[in-house]
Amino acid sequence: MSDKFSLSVRNAAGITIIDLQGELDAYTAPLLEEAVQKSITEKRYNILVNFKELRYIASAGIGVFMAFIQETRDNGGDIKMCNMISKIYKSFDNHGFTMFYEILQHEDEAIKKFK
Amino acid sequence: MKNSTTHNEQLHFTIPSQTQYLHDVREFITNAATTFGFNEDETHNIVLAVDEACTNIIEHSYQYAKDKKIVIDVFLKKNSLEIIITDTGKKFEPDTIPTPNLEEYIQQRKQGGLGLFLIKKIMDTVEFSFQENKNILRMVKHRSS
Fold first, then answer.
1. β-strands B69-76, A6-12 pairing
2. pLDDT tens digit string along A3-54?
3. Distance, in angstroms, between A27 CA and closest chain B CA?
4. ipTM (interface predicted TM)
5. B9-142: what CATH class?
6. What is the pLDDT of residues B78-117, one digit of tens each?
7. Interchain CB distance below 8 Å, B48 and A58
8. Domain ranges in chain B?
9. Is residue A71 domain-resident?
10. Is there a domain that residue A1 lies in?
11. Which residues of B touch A102 (CB under 8 A)?
């Protein structure tokens, strides 16, 4: 598994799906920020982040979701998350974050949660 | 006891003050913590604490100046791992940093400032001092078994 960070963006059923891979830290977080910002600029407020291939997240990465979650919700959307390995889930839990986000196990299940 | 290291061994690592080197820091700390006998979860947390500390130094202490140094010393003691991180940037005053209220945080759309909160949550001892124009962060994590 490569530890270099990369992301790709898909659109499905009106939802922006961002697939993350590698390590998300203060160096790589601006790439995620750019992708989330682009979706919001395009008025696509339903964003699903797929963590399947992500192996590490620092608070700089989590901070990106904190910065944008309210804006998506104010516009009737949400940022939901899926496919986290336990190490990543624990990083969210350490921040007390799991109570603010809907974190689902599978992508299909997460897509259905968007109204 | 899984410790395979000699007690009181010391490791040393220096990086330029740039976020692109955080990966190297993580690799260094992963090796140190694993060698010391911490399990995967404990190692991950220690790596995260050190990553957050170095990120804070780059952003706040050096304010993104790229030509500075961050010095990391790791001491493998009998039952604990001690990590000392030194920088020569702006004096850090931890008492001025409030504990974040996450709900307010989200409403205010803030993005940074979680690192210190996380470091304190993970490490058993976190001490800041300022000596001879250097910020010195001392962190200790005890081995549970």
1. unpaired
2. 789 999 999 989 999 999 999 999 999 999 999 999 999 999 999 999 999 9
3. 5
4. 0.89
5. alpha beta
6. 899 999 999 999 999 887 777 777 777 677 666 667 889 8
7. yes
8. 9-142
9. yes
10. no
11. none
